Amino acid sequence: MKRMITIACLLAGAVLLAGCPKKATTVQPPTAGSQVGDSSSTSPSGGASTSGGDLGGDNSRGEVGDATGPLARKVIYFDFDKSEIKPEYTDIVKLSAQTLTGRPALKMKLEGNTDERGTREYNIGLGERRAQAVRRALMLQGVGETQITTVSFGAERPAAEGDDEAAWSKNRRVELVYLP
Amino acid sequence: MNRPHVLLAMIGLLVLCPRSWAELVVEVTKGQEDAIPIAIVPFNSPTEAAASFDVSQLVSDDLARSGRFKSMARTDMIEQPHMGASIAFDDWRRLNNDYIVVGQVQLLGPDRYNIVFELYNVLNRQRLLGYQISANKAGLRLASHQVADMVFQKILGVRGAFATRVAYVSVLGHLPNKSYQLLVADADGMNPRVVMQSNEPLMSPSWSPDGQSLAYVSFEGKLPTVYVQELKSGERRRVSARAGVNQAPAWSPDGKKLALTLSTRDGNLDIYTLDLASQALTRITDDPGIDTEPQWSNDGRSLYFTSDRAGGPQIYRVGIQPGDKPRRLTFQNSYNARPRLSPDESQLAFVTQEEGAYRIAIMDLRGRGDVQVLTRGHFDVSPSYAPNGAEIIYASRDRGRGVLALVSSDGRVQERLVSSEGEVQEPAWSPF
Q1: A128–B267: do the CB atoms touch at under 8 Å?
Q2: ipTM
C-alpha cells in the first residue's frame, strides 16, 4: 500500500517534471500550468491524506529530485528578531508565487523557524510571524489564500546545531514546501 | 520513511515505559555557606531490606542536595546509634552537628517494611520528631524522600519537596534524526519514565493540579496539537488541534480549564481559555502582537502572560472576566518573558535578557516590584517553581548541551542536573 503511494507520487512527479519548463525563470502559461497541476495533485494528495498527512516536504523533494527543480523546498533566511523579507529573497517569493498562481490546485506549507535564543513559546510566535510575512508576500502576488498553510516550529526544529551565529543564521528561516 | 514516525508516536502513546532511561545526575555548583550540619546515621536494617535500598543514604543525599544542609560523611562517624536512647550527644556535639537522625528499617512481613526514625537537636538533646512509615520494597524510595521532607520541614519550617516529580523534554540524536521524549522523573532526577516519544518536537509540559496528568504540545502530526495525558494509564486526549497555533497549555487551579495560545488565520497569537468538559473556548486577549505563555493566578481569576504589544516581549497580567485591560508588570530590560508565579504568589519568576544573555529573574510582587537576576548563564530559560517555593528549576546550557539547573529562590544555592545522554529542556515541577 505504502509502496503503491510512493510509486504514484513518483509517477505524478515525473508527469510534473515533464510538464515543467526547464528554466525556473520562464513564466508558465496559466492553462497548461493548471492542467499539469490538476493531474499532479489528484492522485498523490489522495495518498497523502490516507497516510496521515505525514508526507511532508521530504516527499516533494524526493519527488522532484534535484534541488533546482521548481517544486524543490526553498528557504528564506531572516535577521535576528526580524520578520521582514530581505531583498535577496524577493526572487524566491516571485517564482513561488508564479508557480502557485499557475497551478491553483497546488498547495504550499510555510514552516516558520527561529534560532534558539529566547523563550520557547514566544519563539513559536516569532516563527509564525515570519511564516505569515511570506504568506502575505505570496498573496500580494496573487496566490490564493487557500493554497497556503503556515506552521511554526519556533526553535524546536533547527537546521544547524550550535550556540553561535553561524548556526543561528541558518535557523532563522521560513521553509517553503510544496505539498504533494 | 514516514511510517516509523507514526508507529513510534503510537507506541509512545500506548506505553508508559517501565524501562529505566538515562538518569539525571545532580551536581551542587554553589552551596549555602551557613548550611546546617546534620548527621544521618545509617539505619539498622535486616539484611533483606538493606540489600534492596539504603534509606538513610537517600535522606542524607536529599538534605545535602537542597544546599540548606551539610550532611556528615559516614566515614567521619565514630559510632552508629539506631535509637535516641543510645545517642552520646556530647560526641556528636564535638563533631559540630546541630541535628542528628537515627533509625531502623524493620521487616514486617513478605515485602513489607517499616521505617522508624527520630530527629534530635544535638545542642539541647530535644527529640523533634519520632515517626514511622511503612512501605513495600518498591515504595522504599518514595518513603525515604518523605523522611527527608519531614526533617526538612521540622528544622526549616518549610515543607520539603523531595517526594515530588519533575516533567521534562529530552532530545536525543543529531540532525536530521532527532527524537523527542517527554519524561517524568523523581525530583532528584532518578527513576525517569517516558510519557511520550516522537520523532517530531514535544514541548511545554504542564501539570494538572492533582499531579495525575500532563498537558503538552506535540508536533507528531507535523502540526502543533495540545494533548492531555493521564500518567498512570497512559490514556490521552487531544484537546486542541485548531487551524494554526495550538500552544502553551496551562492548567487552571481548579483543574477544569486550560489557558492556551491559539492563532487567527492571519497568524495573530492570543490567549484563550478552554473548558475541558464542555470544550467551550473563551478569548482572553485581543491584540495584534504576540500574546502567549499564560500562567494562572491561584484564585483562577487572572492570567500572567508574555506580550510584545509594546515592541519587545514584556509580562502582563489580565483578569479573565470580559473587558479587563491587561496591565504591564515588567519595565526593566527589553526582553522579559514566560512568567511563573511562586506558590505563595509573593514572587514572579521569568526570563530576562541582560548583557545579551537570557537569565532567570524574580520580581517581588508584595513590595515595590524589585527585580533580582538569579542566574549567570547565557541560555537560562523555562523557570518552574518547586511546589514549596524554595527552589526554581530551569533549562540551561553547559558546553553546548541542554541541561537542567536549580537555583534556590533567594539565589544562594545553585545546582545542575546533567543527563547521561542527549539534551534535556523544559522542566516542569509537579505539585505536592
Answers
A1: yes
A2: 0.91
